[in-house]
Design brief:
Layout (H helix, E strand, L loop, with lengths): L5 H6 L8 E7 L4 E6 L4 E6 L3 E3 L3 E3 L10 E3 L3 H14 L3 E5 L3 H12 L3 E6 L10 H13 L3 E4 L3 E5 L2 E4 L2 E4 L2 E4 L3 E3 L2 H5 L23 E3 L6 E2 L6 E2 L4 H15 L13 E4 L4 E6 L2 H6 L5 E8 L10 E8 L5 E8 L5 H9 L4 H5 L15 H10 L4
Parallel strand pairs: 4-15, 6-13, 7-8, 7-13, 8-9
Antiparallel strand pairs: 1-2, 2-3, 5-14, 10-11, 11-12, 16-17, 18-19, 19-22, 20-21, 21-22
């Protein structure tokens, strides 16, 4: 998304060049080679400090192409999809990928009356969550009439027939959302190091291994504050924060980015979901011994007409150290309480004493977060 107009950018004193592409970075000469794609001219620009914010690109399936196959990354992608639906009135949609975008697009297609089939290569949808939470989401989708097929790999298409390793599906429109990857081809040729995740390696000040070159946004990997590992979890929040740190430090500042806890959230018509920290599954893969507690409560006082169900799962160590949390239902923005606690290194006992706001339109007298935390404390040694 483009948040500012050209005029707004210029008012901030920024020299802005549209239709220009950097085709080479020369760190030791402090130069970038720029191609004016409109005038078809190439020139060299000099810099004192360089911030690389090349973003990410959609992961595509090479043998899945056609006028009825769509990816969703840019405003143009969205407009093309809307135009296709407007002019063709497709009845059967296939969504490939069971992550956040897959959930939201399955909801959108279902809302406008399309028959929707969601295909996920992994054994379950929503790998960002534990199996029990993901299965709850699957049940909700299927109750709404969406067909969910997991453990199934797309192999190709022939017109309006999509083939998988388990059969065929007739469709009019397919939306592929199997993730994004960092755009790093430019930095690799400049010997700017990338990490194990494929993203650019940066330190806490967003510096790369090349002097005077910084990285920020969806092209970099960052530190996970719970696991201590480098991760690639591209989100708008992280892009904004790392961009601020890189820009400030490139101008002589000394800001530090401490890392992320992987906080994410999405909404459908039937449920919202949110997560922060590590899931049980992720902790097990990292060799971290954890326990978990799951509770079901209401997001508001029970006598409020808009009161609805919320499920809260807390993941923690035996000593009460908070590792992560997952929420489903309505009011899942409470995930920010857990994210704050993780950042502040609060344990379950610390959280149990938080003075959360109470008023019937906003929460029950015992907030679901406190119910979950107190239930988890019973398992602490």
């Amino acid at each position: 998304l483009v948040a500012l107009s050209d005029e707004q950018i210029k008012k901030k004193g920024i020299e802005f060049h549209r239709y220009h592409r950097v085709i080479e970075i020369k760190p030791h000469r402090k130069q970038v080679v720029v191609r004016d794609t409109k005038e078809r001219e190439t020139r060299i620009e000099h810099f004192d400090r360089l911030v690389v914010a090349s973003g990410a690109e959609t992961v595509k399936i090479s043998n899945i192409q056609g006028e009825n196959i769509f990816y969703l990354r840019t405003l143009e992608d969205a407009q093309n999809l809307k135009d296709f639906i407007k002019h063709n009135s497709p009845r059967n949609a296939v969504v490939v990928g069971g992550g956040y975008i897959g959930m939201e697009m399955a909801d959108a297609f279902n809302t406008i009356g399309m028959n929707v089939t969601l295909i996920e290569k992994l054994p379950r949808i929503l790998p960002q969550f534990d199996r029990d939470m993901a299965e709850n989401a699957r049940k909700k989708l299927e109750e709404a009439g969406i067909t969910v097929r997991t453990g199934e790999t797309v192999q190709g298409i022939d017109g309006k027939i999509l083939y998988t390793d388990k059969g065929r599906i007739d469709f009019n429109l397919a939306l592929v959302s199997i993730g994004i990857k960092p755009r790093t081809e430019l930095v690799q040729s400049a010997r700017i190091e990338t990490g194990s995740t494929g993203g650019i390696k940066v330190d806490s000040r967003m510096k790369t291994n090349q002097f005077s070159v910084y990285g920020a946004g969806d092209c970099i990997q960052v530190k996970h504050i719970v696991s201590g590992r480098d991760v690639y979890i591209p989100l708008g929040t992280t892009a904004n924060k790392t961009g601020k740190v890189a820009g400030d430090n490139a101008a002589g500042g000394e800001l530090v980015f401490s890392g992320i806890s992987g906080t994410g959230i999405f909404r459908t018509r039937w449920f919202d979901m949110a997560v922060t920290g590590l899931t049980e599954t992720q902790a097990d893969l990292l060799g971290i011994k954890v326990k978990s507690v799951t509770i079901s409560s209401l997001n508001k006082a029970h006598y409020m007409p808009e009161s609805d169900k919320i499920v809260v799962k807390v993941v923690f160590k035996e000593n009460g150290e908070l590792v992560g949390a997952q929420l489903m239902g309505r009011g899942v923005e409470r995930v920010n309480i857990f994210a704050t606690a993780i950042k502040g290194k609060m344990n379950l006992m610390d959280m149990a004493g938080i003075d959360l706001a109470y008023s019937p339109p906003f929460a029950p007298v015992w907030d679901p977060v406190l119910i979950a935390v107190n239930q988890a404390l019973k398992e602490v040694k």
